[in-house]
Amino acid sequence: MTGPLPVATARRLTWPQLPQGVRDTVEQRLGAPVLAAESQNGGFTDGVAARVDLDNGTRAFIKALAAEHELAPDYRTEARIAAALPADVPASRLRFSLEAEGWIVLVYDDVEGRHPDFVRPTDLAAALTCVERMASALTPNPLPWAVPITTPLGPLLCGWHTLRADGAPAGLDPWSARNLDRLADLESRWAEATEGDTLLHADLRHDNMLLTRDGTVLAVDWAWACVGADWVELVYLLPAVAAAGADPEEIAAAHPLTRRADPSAVDAFLCALAGFYTLSGSLPAPSWSPHIRTHEAWYGRLCRTWLARRTGWS
After folding, report:
1. What is the pLDDT of residue 10?
2. For residue 233, what are the β-bridge partners?
3. SS3 82
4. Which residues contact 21 (CB under 8 A, 6 or more apart)?
5. DSSP 8-state assignment for residue 221
């Protein structure tokens, strides 16, 4: 079962809603006043995300979030990672970050482009090439202080264990309920299965990628960056590809990263992703992201369908 998500997936603040002092500080760092700001409504957070036109004829992309927001640590992590990425990584470039008057602000070079549409073969091919380029540029991991994959994902990728402990809730789909013990067992292997020495974005979806005018794709929003096996990046992306109607197994079988990966390791990580999306998609939506549970429930179905195909479990 697939279907389009709403175009506006978050309730975002706008540039004019930032305190005047914060805007003044950003403009001073930019070296020019902001003449116009166009809010970008994709993604699942409620912070400012705006493309701005400056008085000097240039453009920039500005993200901002209140420092007490529950996602503020993610913005700080993103700022640190984005500032340290090697130049050959296909990513948007951070100009600077700052904290002022209770706000965290990240300012990037503006990228002229759009999110790739995985229904279009050329967009999908460009995204798959981006994943391969990222693995090449980020192996071995260039940031010795980057955390292992278990640090950001460990607290999340335990959905099947949680569901089993709850006694297979009534709303659980029949396939998951029948296979819950096997799913929890397979999920328990994901941490060891994903060990590696590649710096991963670890949150790739179409809305965290930009297709530029020259046909290349860049990865944005590096808040979840961590170190693990290079093929993890593609497996994380493939539910978004499946959502566009493509066959994730066909792509996994052909792509250089997953083609050489241990199939049982891929199964373990895919199982853990399926458990996360299945559990999280059943929870109440936070006020700052009203559509995130719809997204997660949908991705849970896609991951379960793919996993059932790979395992042969009925």
Report:
1. 59
2. none
3. helix
4. 100, 101
5. -
Residue 24 neighbours by CB under 8 Å, 6+ apart: none
CA distance 246 to 80: 34
The stretches of the chain forming alpha helices (DSSP H) are 20-30, 72-84, 121-137, 150-153, 159-165, 174-178, 180-187, 190-193, 232-243, 248-254, 256-259, 263-280, 292-311
Longest dimension (CA), the chain: 62
The C-alpha atoms of residue 5 and residue 299 are separated, in whole angstroms, by 11
Burial of 53 (0-12, 13-18, 19+ CB in 10 A): middle
| Token representation of residue 71 | 């996602």
Cβ-proximal residues to 125 (8 Å cutoff; 6+ apart), any chain: none
CA count, 13 A, side-chain hemisphere, 202? 29
CA neighbor of 65 nearest in space, from 79, 48, 41: 48
Per the CB < 8 A criterion, the answer to whether 266 and 230 are in contact is no
Q: Note the pLDDT tens digit of each residue in 246-261.
A: 999 999 999 999 999 9
Across the chain, what does the average pLDDT equal? 93
Q: Tell me the pLDDT band of 42, cut-offs 50, 70 and 90.
A: low
Per-residue tokens: 270 = 């895919």
Q: How far apart are CA 12 and CA 21, in angstroms?
A: 20
Looking at the predicted structure, is the pLDDT value of residue 280 above 50? yes
Which has more confidence, 39 or 101? 101
pLDDT at 6 over 80: no
Cβ proximity of 288 and 46 under 8 Å: yes
**Tokens 């975002």, located at residue:** 12
Query: Which residue type, as a one-letter code, is found at position 113?
Result: G
